[in-house]
Design brief:
34% of the residues lie in helices and 13% in strands. The protein is of the alpha/beta class and 268 residues long. Strand 5, helix 5 (126-132) and strand 6 (136-137) form a beta-alpha-beta unit. It is globular and about 55 Å long. This is Radical SAM core domain-containing protein.
C-alpha cells in the first residue's frame, strides 16, 4: 500500500507491490504448529479469485490486486477440515461459471462455509440465491455490505431474494461502513435497515488507507469523536440495537453522552 514509506524505513529489503501469484499457487500448510490455540483450526482458507471491478475510494483491493482466477483453488481446501473460509474480495463479480463451480464444490463437499468478504449485492439474483441456499453457512457466513446509500433498494432487494431462496436470517452479516463521506443519520439508516430485514449489521469504521498508526483516530468531516465511539459501540451490541434505536439509547448514556456539537452533526 505504501511502498515508499516501507523502503525509507527498510532500504535493504526486496519489496514487491501488490500480491504474489507464486504464493497464491502454494497450498496452505495446515500441519504447522504455531504454538497457540487456534480459533479456526476447523477451517481451510482459500482465495479462488483476486481483484474487484469496483473502485471504491475507501478500499485498497483494486489498487493492489489484478483480476485473476486461481486455477489451483480446489487444492487449497483440506477435505478433512469441515469448514472453509472463502476470502475472495468480490467472488460474485466473477464469471458465473466460476461462481457456480465454487458453490457446487462447497455444497458437494458438505462444507460449512463463511464468505468472509461477502457478496456484492448488485450481483445477487434468483439464480445465485438458489445456488447459495444449498450451502451450510457458519459464523454468519452469508455476508454482504451496505456501505453506500447508493445501494439503497438494491441491498434490500438482494437480502429479500436470498431470504426467499431459504437462507436463514441467522446466516447473514452485513458490513456497514461509517465515518467516511456519510452523515451519521445516513449510516444509522443503513444499519437500521439491516435490523428491519432481520439480519446482523457489523459497523466498519473508516480509516484512511495511508494512516500508519492508531494515534489520533481519524474522524470524518461529518462526524465527531463522540459520535464515532457511540455509534460503533451501539451497533456492535445486539443486546442494544435489537431492543431500541440509537438516538433513544445514546440519550440514556453517561459514558457515551453527546454534547451540543455532536447533536448538531447528528441532526444535519
Amino acid at each position: 500500500m505504501m511502498p515508499k514509506d516501507i523502503l525509507n524505513k527498510f532500504p535493504d529489503i526486496n519489496l514487491f507491490k501488490g500480491y504474489s501469484k507464486i504464493l497464491d499457487f502454494c497450498q496452505p500448510d495446515y500441519t504447522i504448529d504455531w504454538g497457540i490455540k487456534q480459533k479456526f483450526d476447523s477451517f481451510s482458507y482459500v482465495f479462488t479469485t483476486r481483484g474487484c471491478p469496483n473502485k471504491c475510494a475507501y478500499c485498497v483491493v483494486w489498487k493492489i490486486e489484478d483480476n485473476w482466477i486461481n486455477p489451483t483453488w480446489k487444492s487449497h481446501i483440506d477435505k478433512d477440515k469441515p469448514n472453509v473460509m472463502v476470502y475472495d474480495n468480490n467472488l460474485s463479480s466473477q464469471p458465473i461459471e466460476h461462481v457456480e463451480s465454487v458453490i457446487k464444490f462447497l455444497v458437494d463437499e458438505k462444507k460449512g462455509v463463511c464468505f468472509d468478504n461477502g457478496f456484492d449485492c448488485k450481483y445477487i439474483d434468483k439464480h445465485i440465491a438458489e445456488m447459495l441456499s444449498g450451502i451450510r453457512f457458519v459464523r454468519n457466513g452469508m455476508r454482504l455490505a451496505f456501505d453506500r446509500i447508493d445501494d439503497d433498494v438494491v441491498f434490500q432487494k438482494a437480502v429479500e431474494t436470498l431470504l426467499s431462496a431459504g437462507i436463514p436470517k441467522s446466516a447473514f452479516m452485513a458490513y456497514v461502513l461509517f465515518n467516511f463521506t456519510d452523515t451519521p443519520k445516513e449510516a444509522n439508516y443503513r444499519a437500521t435497515e439491516c435490523v428491519r430485514l432481520g439480519i446482523h449489521p457489523y459497523p466498519q469504521q473508516y480509516v484512511p488507507l495511508n494512516k500508519k498508526n492508531r494515534d489520533n483516530p481519524y474522524i470524518g468531516k461529518l462526524w465527531t469523536r463522540n459520535l464515532v465511539r457511540a455509534f460503533r459501540f451501539f451497533w456492535l451490541m445486539a443486546g442494544y440495537f435489537t431492543k431500541t434505536d440509537f438516538e433513544t439509547w445514546v440519550k440514556s448514556q453517561d459514558k457515551y453522552k453527546l454534547n451540543d456539537e455532536d447533536w448538531e452533526k447528528w441532526n444535519k
